[in-house]
Write a structure and sequence with these properties.
Length: about 130
Amino acid sequence: METKWKRYGWLGLLASVLVTGCDDAPSANRHEDTCAEPMSLRVEVMSSDGAYIQGASVTATNLESNVSITGVTDDRGITTAINETLAPSPIRVVATAGSHVTRAERVEWTCDECHCTPVPGTVTLTLQD
């Protein structure tokens, strides 16, 4: 009897492991939900002489609801904090660094059933002297 358990017990264990791989539990091999992560607008902030500005404050405001998102540029002068939660209405994007301000840029959104994508996808703002 003990020999049968050893022989068939391992087969049963193997079968149960194979069957549990067929459920809806998370798996490293499954595709991620591409709709879960919001689409972002890439904003670059530069000085008037073309240097990227770290620590600039970038604010995007929905032109209809007046809701805003603010982000800060990284060491490469870039922020992706502005995202599609402000869509589908157009947004106004402006940056400040100290007493310097950029001209405002308008960004539209193209929306489908999953995401709203900024148009243009990247905005470069130049600080005024």
